[in-house]
Amino acid sequence: MAITTRTYAIIAATAVVAGLGVMWLATNSQQAQPESTDVFAQCRQGVVSGAGAIGGAFELVSETGATVTEKDVITKPSLLYFGYTYCPDVCPLDSTRNAEAVYLLDDRGYDVTPVFISVDSARDTPELLAEFTDIMHPRMIGLSGSEEQIKAASKAYRTYFKVQDPSDPYTLIDHSTQTYLVFPDTGFVEFFNRDVTPEDMADRVACFVDAWKTTQPGGAQ
């Protein structure tokens, strides 16, 4: 059967309509895709592999001598760092950087708690921790505990530490050096490497805190 000009026109029009329908479905399908539920997406500088597995419960001994859990310690946005007071260079520098960032945040009206978790169960007594943290920042909380308690907290945050020579009273301890940003209930949201400046840390933490506040009763403050 011969195909008339009119038939060609109908076929062409049908194709156009079908094409428009596909485009409409594709566009609306994209629009229907749920947006990211990560309220911190705009604050992140990269994807943290296995972020959901970082953080969790711990039981440690405070610089006051009291046994505490993460619920006692992380009552506000907090910066957690694992180190030890006998550390000759890295820990004092990192802790000073964290304290400086918190001071900058203080000036902007952000209440962030710096936390120092010692991995040195043999030497870091509550008294030594209190002396160390008081030098760094008046709100810095020092935590330590038994070898088992420290290992459990370190495992929860996927950190690493190894005492070089347990028999040496002056031994050094190899350890990871990231600082972790955590929120009450929410838990871990980001980590900061050693090369992050106090100013950059303060800016990024402020972004996370602002986003976190929107999830709290009453919204952003």
UniProtKB/TrEMBL annotation:
Similarity remark: Belongs to the SCO1/2 family.
Disulfide bonds: 87-91
Residues that, per the record, bind Cu cation: 87, 91, 175
Classification via InterPro entries: SCO1/SenC, Thioredoxin-like_sf
Transmembrane intervals: 7-26
UniProt KW Disulfide bond keyword: yes
Organism of origin: Pseudothioclava arenosa
Pfam (any one): SCO1-SenC
Protein name, as recorded: SCO family protein
